[in-house]
Amino acid sequence: MTYSGRVTVGGPADVHELKDLMITKVAVGPMDNNAYLLRCRATDEQLLIDAANDAKTLLGTIGDDGIASVVTTHRHGDHWQALAEVVAATGARTHAGREDAEGIPVPTDVPVDDGDTIRVGRVELTARHLVGHTPGSIALVYDDPHGHPHVFTGDCLFPGGVGNTHKDPKAFARLIHDVETKIFDVLPDETWVYPGHGDDTTLGAERPHLPEWHARGW
């Protein structure tokens, strides 16, 4: 079946099958959070992005093979409610942005800085530090050698705008600057965007609206 990126809490996961990587998207919790399970097709090693909520659903999605790592995109509580239980069940190493690690109650094994590489099997993801939604938010970029890039943006980029900066002009200015310079300016329109909530999008769909986002200030 064709991947749509549309999932609902309590509904089935959606699977994006790439040549080297399988991406399983599932929605969990009262804030409709997205969690993403990445599986290297060469080694079967798995990595989870955001153990957001509902450990039972996440562990069922992970299955018997477990996960080697879990990456928390930022420190807001709706993105780590199930982290302790998932780590206890799997023994996974934890990754989070260095500036957000202290705000996550589960210890961070690997503090992540801009440009760091996080691996799942033979697949490499590049971390991009995006400031504004939180001090240490990170996005993960997978530059697929067989196709277009894929980027997991947490709460920093959604269909229709950047993440919430709580009406703080300085925070908005920093976030849109980082999203433009580290995401839009260096990745092509075909780049698939996997956000922390809601449907997926592409950079090409969002790029024409950047001037509107600047003008409205959110």
From TrEMBL:
Record SUPFAM superfamilies: Metallo-hydrolase/oxidoreductase
Pfam families for the chain: Lactamase_B
UniProt-listed SMART domains: Lactamase_B
InterPro entries (UniProt xref): MBL_Glyoxalase_II (IPR051453), Metallo-B-lactamas (IPR001279), RibonucZ/Hydroxyglut_hydro (IPR036866)
MF GO annotations: hydrolase activity
Name of this chain's protein: Zn-dependent hydrolase
Record-annotated membrane-spanning stretches: none
Keyword terms, alphabetized: Hydrolase
Superkingdom: Bacteria
Entry keyword Hydrolase: yes
Organism: Streptomyces caelestis
Residue intervals of the Metallo-beta-lactamase domain: 32-197
